[in-house]
Amino acid sequence: MKTIWLIARRELLATLRSPLGFVVAAMVLALDGLLFNLLALGGGEKYSSEVLAQFFYTLSGTTMVASVFISMRLLAEEHQTGSFPLLLTAPVKDGHIIVGKFLGAFLFLALLTLITLYMPLLVMVHGKVSWGHVFAGYLGLLLLGAAALAIGTFGSTVARSQIVAAFISGALVVALLLFWLLGRAADKPLDDVFSFLALHNMHFRPFMAGKIHLRDIVYYLSVTVFFLSAATRMLESRRWR
Amino acid sequence: MALATSSSPWGVRNARWVLFFYLTGWALLYVGERLVGGVGKGRWVVSGLAVVLLLAAWLAWKLAWWFSRDEHRRIQRTIFFLSLGGFAALVLYVISSDLVLGPAAPAKPGEAGVSGRQILQVAWLLLLALSSGPLLFAQWSAFGATRSQSPDARRVFSSAWSGGIVTTLLCTLFFVNALANRLDVNTDLSYFKTTSPSASTRSLVEGLTEDTAALLFFPPANDVLTEVEGYFGSLARSSSRLQVKVIDRAMAPEEVSTYRVSRDGTVVLARGEQRQTIEFGVELDSAKTKLRKLDSEVQTALLKLERKQSTVYWVTGHGERSAERVEGDARDRMSLLKGVLSNNNLLVKPLGAVQGLSSAVPDDAALVMMLGPTTALFPGEAEAIERYLERGGRLLLTLDPAAKAQPEALLSRLGLRFRPTLLASDQGFLVASQTQADRRNIVTDQFSAHAATNMISRYSRELPVAMPESGSLEKIGESKKRVDFICRSLPVVWADADGDLSPGPDEKRQMFQLAAALSAPVEGEAAPPPEKTPPAAAPPKREMRAVVLANSAAFGDTFLPFYGNRFFMADVLRWLVGEGEVAGPPANEEDVRVQHTRGQEIFWFYGTVFAVPVIILGVGFATRFGRGRNRRAAS
C-alpha cells in the first residue's frame, strides 16, 4: 500500500508540476464553462434540475476526454523517455505500478472535476439545487472518470507512444460508449448485455438525474478493476511475449 | 503433408489456422443455435459445421501434442488440456439444449427459483469462458515460442495463468453485476424534499380559534407516513390547538366511517363538523409531487376550515387577462394568481356587464380585480366601481401598455395618469428570450415603506421583482384620496418612446413610478392612521383601498413564480383583502426555473469560460516559475 501511495503521489505531483497538467486543467475548465453556458443554461428558461442534469451530461463528455489525455502518458511516457526498463527493474510489483499510476491520475482528475463545483453553486444562486442531486452527479462523474482512466491506463500500457496510447484508449472508450447502439440493434439476449455494457447511456443517466443505483456503481467499479487488471497482465506479458 | 517433423508438427506450424477453426466453430454454433435456430435444416447445417470445425481443432491440437517433442510437447499438451474445457462446455451445451431436455416450458407467472436447465446453461458458458481465456493467452504466447529453436514452456504457462486470472475476474465481475442488477438497490437524491411548515402556516396554526385535529390514515411503518408525520409533528409544536393522530385504517373502522376515508394515505383535518381531506397514497414515488407542496395543501385546508369564504370579482368584458387560455390573446395567463386566491379560500367570480357591473358592484365583493383591460369601460361601469370604492371597496387594477384603450375615466377618478410608453433598461433586466426585447423585462428593488409592501420592502434586495412590459404612473391634480407610489423603477431605466430598445438623446434615464396604493376613509369614518407604520396595527375596516400597477405581466404566469413577485403579490392582496384573509407564500419544495439578469448572464459566461481557467493557468505558471527561481537561487 505504501508503494502504491508513493507512486500515486509522485504521479500526481509530476502532473501538477508539468505544464501539461495545468494547461489540460485550464482547457477542460474552459470547455466545461462554455458547454455549461451554451447547453446547460442556453435554450430558454429551464428548471434547476434540468440545468443540473444537462451540466452533468456535458461534464461527463469532457471528463472522458480528459481521462484519455491524462492517462495517455502514464506508461507510454516511460517508454518514450526510456525510463521504462528502470521502472520494471525497480523492486515494485507490476500491479502496484499500475494502481499507483492510476491513483495519481485519478486524484488529478478528481481535483479537476471538483473544481467545477462553482457551476452548480451558480445554479443554486438563481434556482433550487438539491445537494443530494449534486452529490449523485459528482459521484457518477468520478466513477465514469475512474472507468475511463482505467481504460486509458490500459491503452497506455499497450502502446509505446503517447499518441497511439490516446488513440487506443479513445477507440476503446468510444466502442464502449457505442454499445448502447448495438443494444438497440441486437436481438435478445444480447441486446440486454450490450446495453448493460455501454459506458454511458444506461449507467450515467441516473446519476445525472440525482439517482444512485448500486448496479451503476458496481458496473463502473467493474470496468475500472477489469481494465486495471488487464493493464497489469499487459505489463506482465513482457515476460512471456 | 507430414503431420510431424522433428520438432514442429503441422498443428504447431499452423496454430493460427487451428485457433481460427476453434473460434469460427463457436461463432457458427452461436449463429446456428441462436440466429437460425428452430427445427429446420439450416440449424443442422450451420451447427453441424460448427461441431465439425471444433472437433477438427481439437484433433489438430491432440495430434500436435502427440507428434511434437521436448519443450514443444509440453506446450502443446498445455494447450490441448486447456481446450478440453471448451469440449466439456460443448457437451454441457448439448445436454442443456432442446436436443436432450426438450423445448423449455414458458415460465409461470410468479414462479421463482432456478431450474436445472438454467444451471446447465450458466455452467457451459462459464466453462467455455474459463477455458477459452487461458487457451487464447497460451496460444498467443505459443506463437512466439514455436518460432524459437529453444522454446520456453514456462512462458506459455505464465501466459495461460494471466489469461486465467483475466477470465476469472471477468466472470466474477459479470456475476457481481448481474447480482447488483437483480437486487436493484437505489436511492433517489434528485430534487425531493417534503416541505417544512412555513412561517405563514405556523402563524395560521398559532391563530387557530378552535381545536383542530390532523388525522393521518396510514398503515404502520409507511414511508409517506414518515414524511407527513414529521411535518405535522413540527406544525403541532406551534399550537396546542392542533392535535395529530396516526390511525391505521384497518384497525379503526369507526373513524374510517366517521371521516369517510376510503383509502390509506389520507390526511383529514377536522374542526368540529368541518372536514378537509388531502390524499397522498402510500407509495412514496407517487406521493412525492404532493409532498413537495404539502405546506401549500395544508395551508389551503386550514384556511378553508378557519375562515369564512370571501368573494373576489374578476372584471371581464374589456379584454382583461384571463386565468384560462383565450383564443387570439397571446398575453400571459393569470392562472397562478387565481390559484393563490383559491388556496386562500377566496371564491373568484366573474364580473361584467352580464353580472350587472354597469349598475353596481355586488355587496359581497371583498375585492374587485381588473387585470389588463384593453378596451374602454362601458358607460356607468367606472361610476359603479367608484361608488363601490366610496363605500369601502377594494380594487386591484393592473394596466397593459399595449392596450388599445385604458380605463382613463377610472384612473382620473383615482387621481392617476398612466403613461403607456414601455420602459426599458440595459442593466437591470431579466433574460428570457436572449434577444434585445429582454430589455423590457425590467426588474426593481425600489419599494417604499407601506403596508402594501410590508414584506417585499424588507427583502427586496434579496428578492428583486420583475416588472416586464411596464408603463409608468403619475399623480394628477388634487385628490381626496391618499396616493402613495409604492414601487419605482431603478434609476437606469428609460421610457423607450422610439421603441429601439436603446436610450436615445431624448430618452432620459430616471426612476419611474410603477405602482400606486390609494386609500381614503369612507365618508363619515375617522381618518386612518399614517400608512408608513407596519401592519401590526390592524388597519381600519371602513376604508377604500386600491392598488394600481403600471403593468400586468408582473402577476402573470411567467413571472409570478419569481419569489420577489410572489411576495409583492401577497403583500398587495393582504393589504387589499385584509391581513388575516391572505396567508403569506407557503413553503414550496417544487423545482424553479433558473432566472438571471443580463448582467448576471455576462458575469456567468466570462467567469466560467475565462476567469476560472485563467486563474488555474496563472497559479500553474506562478508555481512553475517560482520553483524554477528557487532552484536557480539554490544553485
Mean pLDDT score of chain B? 82
Number of domains of chain A: 1
Distance between the termini of chain B: 74 Å
The coarse silhouette of chain A is: globular
| CATH class identity of the largest domain in chain B | Alpha Beta
Gyration radius from CA atoms of chain A, angstroms? 19 Å
Summarize the largest interface: chains and residue counts: A-B, 62 and 59 residues
Large-scale geometry of chain B: elongated
Strand order of the largest sheet of chain B: 7-6-8-9-19-18-16-13
**CATH topology of the largest domain in chain B, which one?**
Rossmann fold
Given helix and strand content, the structural type of chain B is alpha/beta
Topology record:
The complex is a heterodimer of chains A (241) and B (635).
Chain A: H1 2-17, H2 19-40, H3 48-71, H4 73-81, H5 84-89, H6 94-115, H7 118-126, H8 131-158, H9 162-177, H10 179-185, H11 190-197, H12 201-208, E1 211-213, H13 214-236
Helix pairs in contact in A: 1-2, 1-6, 2-3, 3-6, 3-7, 3-8, 3-9, 3-12, 4-8, 6-8, 6-13, 8-9, 8-13, 10-11, 12-13
Chain B: H1 10-13, H2 15-36, H3 41-67, H4 70-96, H5 98-101, H6 116-147, H7 153-183, E1 186-188, H8 199-206, E2 212-217, H9 223-236, E3 242-247, H10 253-259, E4 266-271, E5 274-279, H11 284-292, H12 294-306, E6 310-315, H13 335-343, E7 346-351, E8 365-371, H14 381-390, E9 394-398, H15 408-414, E10 416-419, E11 423-424, E12 441-444, E13 446-447, H16 456-459, E14 465-468, E15 472-475, E16 482-488, E17 494-495, E18 513-521, E19 543-549, H17 563-577, H18 598-634
